[in-house]
């Protein structure tokens, strides 16, 4: 047996070196496995969804009037294949991830108070978020066109007087920023309905509010309405991901293109205080994290309160590592980029949305009692009043 000891030692050492190499270069390995081989210009995208059909929606309420508000929800990336730059809405694996993990944990917090409209769309494949070349940009632009069509279909069919919440996660948050840019900056009636827009997992430069989002403003207190909430929640151990979000994210420009975020100040609203403070907010303010993975849509999962504290550091919401493993983001072989199987702020989001919907409903009632101010005088050639003889 002793004579085989050197061979066994060599094999063990080789395995250790190989595992170390895989761990060190796992991000590059993961990305190389999902990079589409065909240039965007050379492939035919899948057919666009028909939003008049129920199958084009992951969520469509049967009785919207029973809820206090409407929620337009745009899901995160669940298409990870290299076959297409944009995934077909019929992809079984993408739809399984959407139904099992993404929608229950992302839309779930809002389903108690809102009638949720959640379109399927030809989402850009995961790799597109890691390239600034034409292919990745074009894939995201195509995906956004679907979201636009879906939103316009919603506007045509829904009650135009109900409070509205916008919700987007990761890639869906980018597209939700696009909706804010293209529909809410000039339409005062639509903007008046907005309780809040939740932009989660997507960099939102503060400078956007000076340029493409001039008619919108960040939410800086828990009482603000018609405003934007944005945060990217990451544990401190994800230092590379924190750097990437600060320096390599992309956002919409005024002309509909995408531009790189390069060390800009990012909006960070801490969901434990609903302010932009950079102070650490402790676990005593945490209403509850939850995992709705595998549950039927609309089922409320049990929540774990006081599980984490969090602090905004240079635009990133750095959260404590939860004691419960099922509330921790995966780290190996690209797991950190996939749709999360939990929501750290599940109950916090529900309570916040409920409060802001109530506030915007009261504001709409107040505004409906008064006519708007007369902007300018109007000269009449013929008086509508008959003079007394």
Q: Concise description?
A:
With about 400 residues, this protein is α/β, with parallel strands linked by helices.
Overview of the molecule:
The protein has one domain. Helix content is 31%, strand content 13%. The chain has helices at residues 5-24, 26-34, 92-106, 134-157, 171-183, 188-193, 239-247, 346-368, and strands at residues 57-59, 69-74, 114-119, 164-169, 194-200, 227-231, 233-235, 250-252, 258-260, 310-313, 316-319. Helix 3 links the parallel strand 2 and strand 3. The N and C termini lie far apart (127 Å). Residues 12-23 have low confidence and may be disordered.
Low-confidence stretches: 12-23
* Distance linking N and C termini: 127 Å
Quickly give the structural class. Answer: alpha/beta
Number of DSSP-assigned strands:
11
Give the H and E element order.
HHEEHEHEHHEEEHEEEEH
Number of domains: 1
Shape: globular
Secondary structure: helix percent: 25-40%
Approximately what portion of the residues adopt beta-strand conformation? 5-15%
Global Rg: 24 Å
Mean pLDDT: 91
* Number of helices, counting only DSSP H or I runs of 4 residues or more: 8
Give a quick account of the main beta sheet: strands, pairing sense, barrel closure.
6 strands, mixed
Order of strands side by side in the largest beta sheet?
A: 1-3-2-4-5-6
